[in-house]
Design goal:
The chain has helices spanning 4-28, 53-65. With 71 residues, the protein is mostly helical. The relative contact order is 0.11. The structure holds zinc ion (ZN). Zinc ion (ZN) is lined by residues 37, 39-40, 42, 50-51, 55.
Length: 71
């Protein structure tokens, strides 16, 4: 019978690792804000890279299909 406390601790470690990995992926897949939406070229407020989540998802999907060459 496995110790449930051990399992919980292990799960927590896995969750933390996944969260770190997700954060790393997120920052790696976000371009530098340039004043325009990377997906549709719409003008944006300073500091924004996309007009909304749909544009971001579209762009990320396209990037993924292009072989993740994000520069
Ligand atoms: Zn857009």
């Amino acid at each position: 019978m496995p110790d449930t406390a051990d399992i919980a601790a292990e799960r927590e470690q896995i969750d933390t690792a996944l969260a770190i990995e997700a954060a790393r992926k997120r920052s790696a897949s976000s371009p530098v804000p340039c004043g325009r939406c990377y997906n549709c070229d719409e003008f944006l407020a300073e500091g924004l890279t996309f007009c909304n989540a749909d544009c971001r998802d579209d762009w990320q999907l396209r990037k993924r299909m292009q072989g993740m060459s994000i520069t």
